[in-house]
Amino acid sequence: MNTVLQILNLAGSLGLFLYGMTLMSESLQKVAGDGLRSFLASMTSNSFKRVITGLTITAIIQSSSATTVMVVSFVNAGLLTLAQAVGVIMGANIGTTVTAWIISLLGFKADITILAIPLIAIGFILTMSKKQRRKNSGEMVIGFALLFLGLGFLKSSVPDLSANPEALSFLQGFTGNGFGSILMFVGIGTLLTMILQSSSATMALTLVMVNFGWIPFELAAAMVLGENVGTTVTVNIAASVGNVSAKRAALAHTVFNLMGITWALVFFRPFLRLISFIITGFGGADPFVPIAQAVSPEAAATSMLYSVSLLHTLFNVANTLLLVGFTQVLVKVVTLAIKSPDEKEKHRLKFIQAGMLSTAELSLDQVRQEIVHFANIITRQFTLIRNAMGVQDEEEFETMFKKISYYEEVSDRIEFEIAEYLNKIGEQEISTESMKRIQAMYKIIGELESMGDSGYTIGRVLQRKRLNHISFDDKMLKNIHGMMDMVDKAFGIMIANLSAGYTRLSNIENAKDAEKDINNYRDMLREGNMLSLGNKAYDYLTGVYYMDVIGECERVGDYIINVSEAIMEIKS
Predict the structure, then answer these.
(1) Do 145 and 123 contact (CB within 8 A), yes or no?
(2) Is residue 566 very low, low, confident or very high in pLDDT (cuts 50, 70, 90)?
(3) What is the largest CA-CA distance in the chain?
(4) Does pTM surpass 0.70?
(5) Which domains does the chain have, with CATH numbers?
(6) What pLDDT is stored for residue 207 in this prediction?
């Protein structure tokens, strides 16, 4: 019974540590928000900047997985090139070592849990604020407190090996197989990180085990190497539903880490001796000497913690220095491994297929990019309609009509998939501003889908006109093209407003003016149509088809202005 309770306590402590890490990471991203995204997108002009960017962001948000998933999403969105992403990912690997040093320096030296409860109190007070930024800061403080509270419980939950020597003998059964034991613990580190979805949590477990003498330095080092493989799983899961660029970025991360593990295992003993040389050079105990055999077990445990943290840091720094110069080679390798998709892929979702980002704010920015992409797809449908106006050949027209119909199906699918993504974001804890953005986005994708329906309707009008052997004269075609010119102008304004977003858009007078021009032109053509019918310039059915096209174009103008108005509603 005691053993079961110990296991449950250990699992609960680890869960608390993980929850604290997640809460701190996500709240930090909420506080930084656009700043993190802008920093990541701008500081990538050369290899050095890319590495420093990845290192800095990961050190701030304390999650290399969050950074790399963010990077993959930006590659998916076309905001970063594959080469830029590889550099940032290399830096993220270095940045994640900060967690190990925080735990080594603070988690075992002082009883940090003494400060945890007061920090939770401070954090709770901050979360009571009406200002969203203070709320997020409060969550960050609580997350930090829970992280160290979990670590404190983790230390107190591990079995006492001196009282339970059978546990030590069980572990020793895995330590006497030479290099086979090293490979086994690389696998254990990989598996634990895959299960926990956090290399920081596995690192914390590793540090706890070496601190209490569960495993020797060599096996702890092997676990650390395994963690670097396991951490790639999260990114590959995120990229599995993404576009080809996202998949290549995730594969590059995997290849980079696997190459590092390979050379580290080849030079495993010399590498560990180097760590020992550095630690003993600074006055620490030799990490190869078991804690139980050391003159001062406490000093030996501290030295072991520093040795594992130093190994983690040196491995990632050395791997980056060795491979950063081969970034373009790595890009070529993953490009050859993952082929470009066929032409049908161009009408799939482009920006949100890499999965959810860790905060609603960053995920909503992905949706905004996807909506701009959606709007551009709709404009292609109207380009097809314009071209179909003057087609004489029946077979050519039917081919174009099928494409127009296909775009309508695409618009239905994209609206549904974006709406599903928005539903998932809405299930998270989000700010009032984010909720207003979601409501506006629902409206916008509905209007864009209606534009796709109108495009199909115009295509059907043209098809019925041909079946009834009716033709538009040159004046009618000129008027229709004039109307479509105005609609194209309105489309351009709408896309510019969508791209700017509510934060940069101060007014939509240009959109209103474009809509007025469309309405006035429709009214003028309607009056002209009545006069032409009265003068018997063409028959009634021809006039009906003619005004159906004009009327549907005007309806599209209404949908277009509704999009810009929805953007402005977020500000109100």
Answers:
(1) yes
(2) very high
(3) 112
(4) no
(5) 359-569 (1.20.58.220)
(6) 82
